[in-house]
Amino acid sequence: MNAGTGRMLSTIFGNRYTRLVLIAGVVCIVDQIVKALIVSTVPVYQSISVIPGFFNLTHIYNPGGAFGFLSGSSSELRHLFFLVSSFVAMGLILYLYAKTPPGQGLLAFGLSLIMGGAIGNIIDRIRIGKVIDFLDVYIMDLHWPAFNVADSAITIGIGLFVYHLLFKDLD
Questions:
Q1: Quick one: which of 144, 150, 153, 160 is 20 to 30 A from 110 by CA?
Q2: Which conformational region is residue 108 in: left (phi greater than 0), alpha (psi within -120 to 50 degrees), or beta?
């Protein structure tokens, strides 16, 4: 690689918004690919034991939010609520990302994870009206609510955000 190519790559990947798009894009693409694999290989409401007594791949659809929030509400109300709240959340993430100081790379990474996860789940909501979940963690008969790659990215991103709020100087 010559010096000109190196400078060009540094300029492209050095741009903070390019990093946001790349990280969020990778999260979203991986989320959608894995969901497509689950849909094509695991029948709905069926499980594949990965670690007996602890972890299954279970194909389910979640019409509600986290932990089934609003799953009992009318379909139209639910759909509208989650679309509007998702777009508001993505706008907030963009605002926070723009305000993130240059030296706060971990915070920017966390916000990028949240953005990618939000986009991954909103694609499901727009496409099929509900979110595909498949990661089923449990001990004996105690199951954590099923989740997906996008949910995992959002959770990790929120964890990084909270870490910065509690332990880092954001100035």
A1: 144
A2: alpha
Phi, psi of 15 (to 5 degrees): -70, 125
Our answer to whether residue 171 is catalytic in this structure is no
3-class DSSP assignment, residue 142: strand
State residue 82's pLDDT score.
Answer: 82
Would residue 136 show up in a list of annotated catalytic residues for this protein? no
Which pLDDT does position 119 carry in this prediction? 96
Whole-angstrom distance, CA of residue 71 vs CA of residue 142: 20
Domain map of the chain by residue range?
16-167
Q: How far is CA 171 from CA 44, 113, 114, in A?
A: 48, 22, 22
Q: Which of 31, 151, 169, 171 is catalytic?
A: 151
pLDDT tens digits for range 109-128? 999 999 999 999 999 999 99
Whether 55 and 140 have beta carbons less than 8 Å apart is answered as no
| pTM listed for this prediction | 0.86
pLDDT < 50 positions in the chain: 8-9
